[in-house]
Amino acid sequence: MTRTALVTGAAGGIGRAVAARLRSDGLRVAGLDLVDPGLPGVTYHRADVTDAGQVAAAVRAVTAEHGGVDVLVACAGVTEGAPLDRTSEEDWDRVLRANLTSAFLCIRAVLPAMVAAGGGAVVTIGSVLHRTAAPGLPAYAAAKGALAALGRQLAVDYGRFGISFVTVSPGWVRTPATESRLEGESDLARLRQSNPAGLLATPEQVAAAVAFAASPDALLMNGQEVVLDAGASAVSPASLLRDGHRTRMGLPPLDGA
Predict the structure, then answer these.
(1) Would you say residue 189 lies in a domain?
(2) Catalytic-role residue among 104, 140, 158, 165
(3) How far is CA 72 from CA 18, 52, 62, 187, 197, in A?
(4) Does residue 109 lie in a domain region?
(5) 218/91 Cα distance (integer angstroms)
(6) Which domain holds residue 111?
(7) Which residues does 61 contact at the CB level (< 8 Å), separation at least 6?
C-alpha cells in the first residue's frame, strides 16, 4: 500500500529536499507552506502552520485527496533571535510558534487518524543547537530542545498504537538561508574543521535520514533524537581552539594552512 506523507515547510531548503526524497521513494507527498515548492508529483496546500484552523483544513484536504496521512514530517521553522535581554515577548512567542507550536498543531491534527489506523510516523526537524548552543538564539534553542522532549513524550503515550516519533537534529546545513549568514569561504572552512569528518551537511543528506526515520523499519528508534552534525558535538573545544593539540592529533590548523 502506498503511504501518504505530509511535509510542512516544504518550500524551504530541508523541507523541499525531504518532500522530493519521499516522493522519489514512492510515497504520495503533500507539502504545506506559504509558498508553492513547485515540486513535480508533490501536491501543494497553502497553510500557515502556526494557525490551528489552517492546519486542520489542510489535513482535511490532504485526507480527502489521498485517503489519510501516514507520515508527518514537521520541517517548518525559523532560525532567528537575539540575546535574552534583548528578546521581546513578541519575538519569543514568534520563534516558539514557528518552531514548536507549528509541530504541535500538525501532530495533533494527524494523530487521531494514525491511532485509528494502527500506525504512522512523525518526524520533527530539531537542531543540534539545543545541545551545543550558539550565541543569541535562546528562543530557537528552547524550541528545538522542546521538540526532542515532545517526541520522547509522544513515543511513550502513543507508541502502543504503532506510531513512531523521531526527531532529526542537524548541525549546519548548506541551505540558502544558512549560507546567507556566512562571510565567505573562510567561514565555510572553519565550519568544516569544526567536525571530525570535515563535512557540511546538504539538505539531501538530512532528507535521507528523515526518509529512514519515517519508514516502518525505524520503529525501534521510537522516541529518539538522531543528531546529524558529522561528530561536531562530540569534539572537545580544546581540539578546536589549540593548534598545537590539533597538530599532535594529526589535524590541520584552524586557519587551514
Answers:
(1) no
(2) 140
(3) 11, 16, 12, 34, 31
(4) yes
(5) 36
(6) 4-183+199-233
(7) 45
Cβ atoms of residues 76 and 8 within 8 Å: yes
Q: Is there a contact between 16 and 39 (Cβ–Cβ < 8 Å)?
A: yes
In a domain, 218, yes or no: yes
Q: Is 252 a domain residue?
A: no
Order of strands, edge to edge, in the sheet holding 71-74? 42-46, 28-33, 4-8, 71-74, 120-125, 163-170, 225-228
Q: Side-chain half-sphere of 240: how many Cα atoms within 13 Å?
A: 16
Whichever domain contains 128, its CATH number is: 3.40.50.720
Q: Which three cell numbers stand for residue 253?
A: 590548523
User: Per-residue pLDDT tens for 22-74?
Assistant: 999 999 999 999 999 999 999 999 999 999 999 999 999 999 999 999 999 99
Q: Is residue 140 flagged as an active site residue? A: yes
pLDDT at 172 over 70: yes
Pick the closest to residue 49 from 38, 57, 40 (CA basis). Answer: 57
Amino acid at 223: G
The total number of structural domains that make up the chain: 1
Q: What is the model's pTM?
A: 0.88
